[in-house]
């Protein structure tokens, strides 16, 4: 089956099998920021944006992105770098393996929720696992990032 979608701002075509996951398609297209740690929707490493909403690419069929807009970390480098500075400033970057999924979810959350309270942030990011940190540094970085003086984008 052939699909057409926008990947990081660029119209993209792909010939896929019916059972191709979005994760596998994105990796084949060179989006190496998308990681897979569990293949069971439990870690958040494979988070990407589809039409502006965060989705877990390991459990989504690639066929579902036909005529949709898909964004990976490669497509939001400026925003990711800005948030990454907050993570580093709080000592929360650790090994960085989980950072792409976390960053994608934070960027989606910023657009979706207006000035979320800490409980709402925790709930939104509940599926993002990090084996290196205790999450406190990440939460400090997220709070500072969201309060940096701008409206949700």
TrEMBL record:
InterPro entries: 2Fe-2S-bd (IPR002888), 2Fe-2S-bd_dom_sf (IPR036884), 2Fe-2S_ferredoxin-like_sf (IPR036010), 2Fe-2S_ferredoxin-type (IPR001041), Beta-grasp_dom_sf (IPR012675), Diverse_Oxidoreductases (IPR051452). Signal peptide: none annotated. The keyword Cell membrane does not apply. This is 2Fe-2S iron-sulfur cluster binding domain-containing protein. Keywords: 2Fe-2S, Iron, Iron-sulfur, Metal-binding. Residues 1-76 form the 2Fe-2S ferredoxin-type domain. Pfam families: Fer2 (PF00111), Fer2_2 (PF01799).
